[in-house]
Structures
1.
Amino acid sequence: MLSRRDFLKSMGATAALGTVPGFANAAGNGARGHVVVIGGGYGGATAAKYLRMWSQGSVEVTLIERNASFVSCPISNLVIGGLKQIEDITVSYANLQSKWGVKLVTDEVTAIDADKRTVTTAKNGSIAYDRLVMSPGISFIPGAIEGLDGNEELVPHAWKAGPQTALLRKRLEDMPDGGVFAMHIPRAPFRCPPGPYERACLVANYLRQSKPKSKVLVLDANGEIQSKKGLFTKAFEGYGELLEYVPNSTLRAVDARTRTAELEFDTIEADVLNVLPPMRAGEIAIQAGLPLINDRWVDVDWLTLEAKGVAGVHVLGDALFPAPAMPKSGHMANQHGKLAAAAILNLLQGMAPNPTPVVMNTCYSFVDGKNVIHVASVHQFDAASGKPMPVDGAGGLSPSANELEAKAALAWAKNIWADMLA
Amino acid sequence: MNLRNAIVVVGLAGVALSAQAQDPNLARNLAATCANCHGTNGNSLGGMETLAGESQKKLLQKLDDFRTGEKPATIMHQIVKGYTPEQLDLITAWFAAQEAEGDEQDAE
């Protein structure tokens, strides 16, 4: 096994103090140590950058990510709807290394030893840490829907952006006019509460223009639309008979080969079947034995985002059991990344974490190629409950879908991708 | 109605400022909650206003105008109500002290 000192030495000159362009005087902020970050999504990439930036380079950071570049889930529905290309939502990790001195390791983590403070990787052996950040995203619960496991090529989820996004787009392009696009939404909580409804709109938008005899069937296991309900209801109405929303539609099984969905009281044959399976925390969080609530989501201390009872392991993003009214969103994961980075830098200096952290969320959804709706919230830490609580009277929704917010949505994407990765 | 009174009226039940010692990096941490949209350290890449290097007075005035509805907004009138006056003071002072990078950060 590589010792921590050897490992840091092996990181080479780019990460050495004083040679990173961002830090004019590389005295650092007094925090010392090596933080390993697992997962370079909205949470992990943000944590990695902010740990380097806020420590002025005095804390070493290694980011372990399995993919060679970042592909964004937010905006990916525009790729599925044919309004953007996959390249438009793909961002390089290169700046994290060249500008911020984050050591990038493109690899898969196979095990975590929280007692010895090491992570084991598939190709790069064992890596020691002083503090670990896990931003593992979500995984799909195996066996939850009969016939689905292992068939994601035939029945794409496209709920992790990348090849699945391109695949679902391809399926839509290949679908004949008059075909049925059926999508299934699992019972909440799931990643990105408004995302499925945005997808339904953007698929309908594409079909209305290109294959108007087709149909979008939204099979929702929930009793109602889970986010921006009034606004999405209105958007759905705008698509008329092209889009049908069916609540209380629990999917029991699929026949992947024939793209047949077996619901509790109905069977549907689709030309394109898009199933969002029931979700839980990312595989590595489950495998590492982190404390889970409802067997699904990681239980954390909200001042540090440390997993309850697992010293030194901070967990971010969609994998968390959410605080009240806190969505599983990329924006929120970015905010978690900053909260954890600040807490870790304090802890590495023997200081208490910030006792009054704040996180906030904004989420934009396209209802067609031009019009967007948002939901926003601000969450202040409440000492009595030990949780961030949404501030009454703050946040809210768009009054109606509008073109101004389409510009805001794309500017949001540009700026948050830079906030994580540039 | 000034900013402070407006906040009292809106009410922030349950988020009264803690009597505990304030974190030495509280202003930095709070300002970072704005960076998702307004860019790291308040340097926007476009489409959102750059906050870095703006005068604190101007920033506070804008926030107050968002809160009262004086300045129309798509979303900021909702977000500003989530922060206390003390937090907005810290955030705006912090952005005022940052250097704006480059020339092309103005809102489009």
2.
Amino acid sequence: MIFDILTIFLSVALVGNYVFSQTLGICPFLGVSSSPSTALGMGLAVTFVMTLSNAATYLIFDLLLRDRFEYLQTVVFILVIASLVQLIEMMLKKLLPTLYRSLGIYLPLITTNCAVLAAANNAVSDESINGSFLFSTFYGFSAAIGFTIAIVIFSGVRARIDEEDVPKPFRGTPITLICAGIVAMIFNGLLSGIRF
Amino acid sequence: MNVKKNIAETVKIVLPLFLICTLMVFLIAICNAVTSPVIERNKQKTFDRSIATLFSIASTEKLKVEKLSFPSNAPATLISAHRIYNEDLPIGYLMEVDGIGAYSGKIRMLVALDCSGRIIDLLCSEQSETPGKGDRVLNAQFYSEHYIGKSSQEISVSPYPALSGSTKTSDALYSAVNTALEGYALLSNDATGGPS
Amino acid sequence: MNAKDILLQFKNGLFDRNPLLVQVLGVCASLAITTTVSNSLYMGLAVTAVLVCSNLLISLLRRFIPEQVRIAAYIVIISGFVTIVEMVMNAYMPSAAAKLGIFLPLIVVNCIILGRAEAFASKNTPLPSIIDGFAMGAGFTIALLLLGAIREILGSGSFFGIQLFGQSYTPIGILTSPPGAFMTLGCLIALIQYLKDRLQSKTKASADQTHKDVKNKEVEPNDL
């Protein structure tokens, strides 16, 4: 059990990091990584939504769709994620206004974050998760932690890029992408020694 | 009065959304009815063809495939096991297994074993390894150098079959083959008449 | 609707407002599947098909969809068409569908499609919307093909799976991995920006004119 949990965590948060080795969730990774504090905010918001959405989509898939309406998976999952984001936004606004003020602006962006849908899809199709609700939820959590690690590391790098004098054609997106490539190379290189 | 107005407003918003959902589900259901038999047939055809290649049989007409059930303590990466008959004579076993730890998560392998548990041939049925990297391991030459003709014991004593530069794919292949052999061992211990 | 308008729409989709190379939308899938040219082609075609269908339906229903729930309605329509495209590909092009893997259902969250629905299809009649779908889809496909060609030729020494060089050629392996994908796209966008700068400084006046035309035609999509 402990070993399984560790395997899931290592394989989706570090070795198979969603951003650096599966290139998922790149839009917010590039868009909201300009400073470490916004990056952390986005990371936390994604962690919150992804954990809950994996729990919800797994339950719905298991109870309603499995073996009968599997072809509706994409439609149902994206609707669940969109309504979950909306719901979380409304609840946070009412119950925890301080948290809402710090996470609120990131929440609507999460619906179109492909990492969330990918985590939900992977969790129901991956045999190593063993068809367990707990593992599926943990899978979402781990993937989101991996995303947070990636976006926070990268925001530090971005803060430095902005101070540098970059050749004109490379200003903006290109230099950001190239630096993301270098960070990804370092991240994957450091972790490639891990075997399990 | 006000309540009535509110309800009318809500209906005005929700009804179109509901109708759109119904329309899309209807379209998907029609499409599913048309495509699912084709998809099933494709799968069956690929499966038959891979059996024919793996066991080097010219025609699939006299082929009989019996699906075996395995005990609950079998590894989760063992997807299915079949006993294969040609002209009513048992010619071996086909194990469908996942190899974990590959670069992109997992690879799915078909492993053909003869009646005494030696590997006849291997075939990769699903992979998304980096082109030019995974292919260096997942090919006939690598299989015949390290796996084909060997039994579980021989593999456990021979040097670890890995190719530098494609270690993750090598690892995944190794774990897949071992799962298949483990599955064979489980089936042969499985009481009455098992493989002999 | 005349030939000039259509041409302008295609010019927008392919060059001025290319979804991937200028607007930098739909990056996730682009980075993940452009390891080979054939994968790029399949992905481009799948996205174009979804884009054309969803643009058409959204444009037809644009008066019927209530303002408050429009995003939800668009998502339902888009995910429906993605599922249909996925099924058709699974049935008639199983090897292509297997290669695209999880990135096929992920077309749903491709910002290009939602962006075009919001910025164009919800404000225009069906015919221009279809043309817009084709134009933007073609722009995306060509960008993917460029990226795929660079990565496949340099990264694995082949083109459409055919080996181009002899045994002595050592491919630049990093280009086929995710870090290489980031860097290739970065360099490609830099090249486009460089060419654009050159073109603009040469023909400043006429460039300004086209820019104005573009501005009149559409509303900027929100940063999705």
3.
Amino acid sequence: MNVRLETIRECLEGIIPGHIGTCDAEGMPNLAYLSQVEFIDNEHVALSYQFFNRTRQNVLAGSPVRLLLTSHLTSAQYRLELQFLRTETAGPLFEQMKAKLAGIAAHTGMSGVFRLLGSDIYRVLSIEQAVGPTVAPPPPPVNYLTALRRAAQKLAGSANLQCLLETALDSLQSEFGIGHVMLLMHDEGRGRLYTLASRGYPESGVGSEIPMGVGLIGISARERSPIRIGFMTSEYTYGRTVRDSIAAEGYADTLETAIPLPGLPEARSQMAVPILACERVLGVLYVESVADLHFGYDDEDALVAFAAQLGQAILHHQQAEEVEEEVQASDNAPPVPAGPPLLVRHYAANDSVFLDDDYLIKGVAGAILWALLQDFVERGRTEFTNKGLRLDPRIRLPGVSDNLEARLVLLQRRLDERSTGIHLAKSGRGRYALTVDRPLELVTD
Amino acid sequence: MLDSDTQAFLQTGVSISLAACNAARLACMSRGMGCKVFDGGRRMAVFVKRSQSLELLDNIAATGKVACVFSLPSSNRTFQLKGADAVVQPFELVDMAIVNHHIDEFVQEVVPLGMAEQVVRTVFSCTADDLATVVFSASAVFSQTPGPKAGEPVGGAAAS
């Protein structure tokens, strides 16, 4: 095989539809257009199985398979000889192809017609380039290796989780030229993802949640697989998918719905990449664009590699923040601030916290805040450690693997964004300091 | 025999692909550079680039069996024609006007869909001395427009 499949992946995007040729037992050829060819690796591709048509009949009867693919960048045409291996009807590959097909269907007016029944996996036996002139491809928008190198260096220089998250999102903007990005962390105990940082939206959406398995982000996390769509499709629009999921799964009591998920209302290209480390799903990076086909295979590769670096760094900072010893409550109570009191209302049923009747947060972050404020009011305590919080029975962390540091960053951001007069700031490794600008009045229901 | 509507469709700015199989049933296909329907809709000629169709032309010479797909990108309207009497003939210079007209119409069809004109014209760039003509009569015609009727025979032709 003279041509490596990885070097001609633009031909698989379906911008110029490929053709598939098969043959029946009597030697009569059959041709069909392909809506989708999915790159698996240099020896394997997957084709979408949508209809039980003549092509499929021929393939299942043992016909050899030939593809004709054309590059929309260079005009080059390639003939690939394939051997059918098997069909998958669930799992990462199936979900990748299902999402992509939904975009293709919407783009070509075929929503409701194109429906993925399976991912047919083929071995690539040969690739030959057809004789003919070609044009030089346009330069890529980004040198992905350079961007990755620079971004990795910046991640390595981050001192703590908060700094790491800022650096990660800044790097995606400055090095990869990605304008709209969200970083969501995985709440393993509650089976959902919460937004911890974002760039490119009017509202940060920090604290917003999406259930595992819902929408592009949730499916990417569940399948531990990048998922990419090149055209707008309502099938993977968040407003709808989250609403439907809440209704169907009975999440309404516990899912964070007061804080809307950020996102472009007219996103045409979307990509979600899981952040994995040590066999765990730590979170998801989500990027989007208003342009069609904005993210290609190279973007996907670069973000998967970036997310792997990010995952290791998140895990490192999470563990590093929990090695410090517990500090004792200070004997010196802080000066009591002046001014009208801030009413802090806590609802134990879901740990939601309201400040002067304005909703702030709920869940684990709400429980943490309530514990901090109780200790502040009752004991004058202003210094806290991750280790102490993890052992605090009032907080009820879902498990020892839970990323407490990420929840503290979330709480810190919500407090800052809402200008609450309550501040949480890092005061050292594994330590936080609480400052309060107004007297507090704590009420629990 | 093709009805006049289908004949007209095949001769507009459609994407054309022609395939034939070898003795091992491996298909080979090439892009059609244009199509001419004649003999009252009973036969047609599809033009291909000889230099990139050597395997295809050998298969046709050996078996005479072809499949040819015509699809309009803007509407997805698609037909597949099968033939069992295909022969390869020398390209006649008079048909160059059909090829050039087809390329122009195809460019007009796909450039509004976002394709770069230079890329499309490069795919279709050809000279008369590198073209071959494949002539066959359609023994079966199928609608392949995606949807519930995809794969159905058109005009009562026997299923293939």
4.
Amino acid sequence: MALADKRYLSDPDIDRIRSAYRVERTIDEALTWKLRRRRGPDYRLPPMAELQARLQAFLLRQIAGPFDILDLQRLSGGGSKEMFRFGLRRNDEQSRPIEETLILRMTPGESIVETHRLREFQIIAAMAGVVPVPPVLWVDVDGTVLGNPGMLCGLVEGVAKPKVAQHEGGSISGIGAGFPPALREPLFEQFVDYLASIHRFDWRSAALTAFDTPAAGTTEAARLGLEHWSRVWEEDSLEEHPVITLARQWLKRNLPVADEIRVVHNDYRNGNFLFNEDTREITAILDWELARLGDIHEDLAWVLFPGFASPDEHGTPLVCGLGTREAFLERYSRASGITVDTEKLHFYTVLNLYKLAILGSATNARAAADRQSHLDVMMNFSTGLGYGALACLYQILKTGGAAK
Amino acid sequence: MKPDVKQHLQSMAKALNEIVLPELQDKPFALEQANLVVASLNLLAEVQEHQFAYVRQEFDDTRSLLAAWRLAHPEGADPAMQQIVTAPQGDTDTQGLGELAKTVTGDKARLRILMDKAPLPTGSPIEPLLHSYIERQLARETAWLRLTGFIPDASAIPAIANVLDSQKNTPLHTTDHPTYPPHQ
């Protein structure tokens, strides 16, 4: 049986995949770009001098007047995007000298997930003033100047994990990170209330041109999610997996109707917000690259995923290391005014595991196999995330999913 | 010579831990990568010698499932499928790892076609066999990756050597098959 070499898919093969799965316009753009770029040489980390020159050229187009780039440094972490930090010295509107620290977030060759910088830029800009987010400044959507698509934003002070963790979570992603009791309650309340604020946000007046809007009262939101991740599986998997096949069949049979279309963060969890340990305040909600317009149950199921939980002193599992499941659902419903539907929650639990399994077992592995990532060792190692998710997904399908 | 890949891997991890990592404390990006390399070397030291046995077990299980599927539901097998399950298996012990892995990948692609295009009728004896097959595959995967820190309850998962031994001694068609709720 002839199998396509996914490193070098032909244009007709790419067209076939694109027509087989209906996804949002900009998601199609990002995924197609990935496939075309994959046919090129192995990815190499940009030398700092080269990156500095590109950044200089990019900023020349954005800033009127003189400026200096100071101390450009690569940041650790960032399994999804390459992250750099630098100082920018320039004059403000009154010609007074100012210096600020900025973050450059760039799409690598490939990584754990392929996303579109304009979507990320627009949603963060839209959420400013709704929840704490980093100030976004400029975006190079297609990487014409920066070399790869990239976005610049301001630095927000804070930490993603407490210095003394209650429970040691994954060091790579903050997954499973726990919090000491003194931090837990204030962070829990903000964590839940900010999620409710995101879901209550009136996105119709926001500039979200990169997003497609599924129709309320239909299964379109769920279908777009399923088709998106099914396409990623087709593009990235090294071989077929029967649990993915079973899950896809189940999801297709059980698509729920979205009563209302709202902003979905799509990676809302511990590790993806910054906080100040002294004031106990969340200073920024991060990692918006997967955000979409859809069904809020996708976010709720993600937050409630046991893989992100960690136990308290008595061994009770806490949602994202912060509060019990009951407390989370109670506070969320009160803060949002939204009634949680358990059937929809179940569907999105399966969809989220499907997504996590695909990202972890297929996209990670593909990026490393084709030497397209900025972190190939991490991509190989974190396939454990995907196969752990596959095992969880199978248990859910076996014990309840297929009977629903 | 006594060829010992594991020994090399362990020596590299030791050198990184004791010599290189302390020099990287003020270089967070390099330190993070070096820590991941150490963790990967430790994982490889546990699993690398079992790679061929792993792929061989995947081959045996997948061929066993495909053959049973065709026997139970010959009408559902496409011509290409029939060809592969009836073809002589040959001496797979003499196949190289890459060749065998490619064969397994092709067989798994066929399994997906069967699952998508030839749904099993209610009460099919293949249904429980399929789920045994899946559980054995998941057992191999989680054992292989148990040292990554991402596998739930990893401390309770046996080493890949033990999983492969056990599966080799109880081939797929001889195992007790789990029950599974019917599709809806």
